[in-house]
C-alpha cells in the first residue's frame, strides 16, 4: 500500500513541461536549439508569467511558429527578437533592456532603499540630539498643585 502511494505521488508530482508541440519543431537541431533559446526569453502575452516556450496559450504557439519561421528565413537571433519587439513592444521581453527610460525602473529599487536609509538616519539623529524637557514645576504651578490637592 505504501509503495502504491509513493508511486502515485511521484507520477502525479508537478513537473515543468514545455508546450512546444512536435509539429512546431524544426528538422534542423541547430535551428531548433536557437528557436528554443529565443523563445525562453520571450514573455507570453496571455500568461505574462511564462515564456512562450512554457505557455500553452494559442498566442504563444503563434509566436513560437513565428520565431521558427524567421529563423528558417535566415534571420539572426537578434533580428528575430527585434522583429518581435517591434511588433509587440518591449513588454514581450522577459528581461527588459536598460536603455531609454527603463534605467529608471531598474534603478528605482536601490534609489528607494538609499532614500529610506537616509530618512531613517536623519530621524534617529534628530531623536538622539533632542533636548530633554524635565524642568519640573515652576513655583506658581507647585502652589496651585498644593491648593488642588488640599481640596
From TrEMBL:
Signal peptide (from-to): 1-19
One GO CC term, this protein: plasma membrane
Keyword field: Cytochrome c-type biogenesis, Heme, Iron, Membrane, Metal-binding, Signal, Transmembrane, Transmembrane helix
Top-level lineage group: Bacteria
TM region(s), chain numbering: 103-124
BP GO terms, sorted: cytochrome complex assembly
GO MF annotations in UniProt: metal ion binding
Domain CcmH/CycL/Ccl2/NrfF N-terminal per the UniProt entry, residue ranges: 9-149
Record bears the keyword Membrane: yes
Family per record: Belongs to the CcmH/CycL/Ccl2/NrfF family.
Function: Possible subunit of a heme lyase.
Protein name as annotated: Cytochrome c-type biogenesis protein
Species the sequence originates in: Roseivivax marinus
Lineage: Bacteria, Pseudomonadati, Pseudomonadota, Alphaproteobacteria, Rhodobacterales
Amino acid at each position: 500500500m505504501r509503495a502504491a502511494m509513493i508511486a502515485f505521488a511521484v507520477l502525479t508530482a508537478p513537473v515543468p513541461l514545455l508546450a512546444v508541440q512536435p509539429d512546431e519543431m524544426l528538422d534542423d537541431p541547430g535551428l531548433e536549439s536557437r528557436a528554443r533559446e529565443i523563445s525562453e526569453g520571450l514573455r507570453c502575452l496571455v500568461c505574462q508569467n511564462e515564456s512562450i516556450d512554457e505557455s500553452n496559450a494559442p498566442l504563444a504557439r503563434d509566436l513560437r511558429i513565428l520565431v521558427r519561421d524567421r529563423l528558417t528565413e535566415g534571420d539572426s537571433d537578434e533580428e528575430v527578437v527585434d522583429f518581435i519587439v517591434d511588433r509587440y513592444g518591449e513588454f514581450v521581453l522577459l528581461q527588459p533592456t536598460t536603455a531609454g527610460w527603463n534605467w529608471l525602473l531598474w534603478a528605482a529599487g536601490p534609489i528607494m532603499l538609499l532614500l529610506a536609509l537616509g530618512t531613517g538616519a536623519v530621524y534617529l539623529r534628530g531623536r538622539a540630539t533632542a533636548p530633554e524637557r524635565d524642568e519640573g514645576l515652576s513655583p506658581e504651578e507647585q502652589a496651585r498643585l498644593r491648593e488642588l490637592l488640599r481640596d
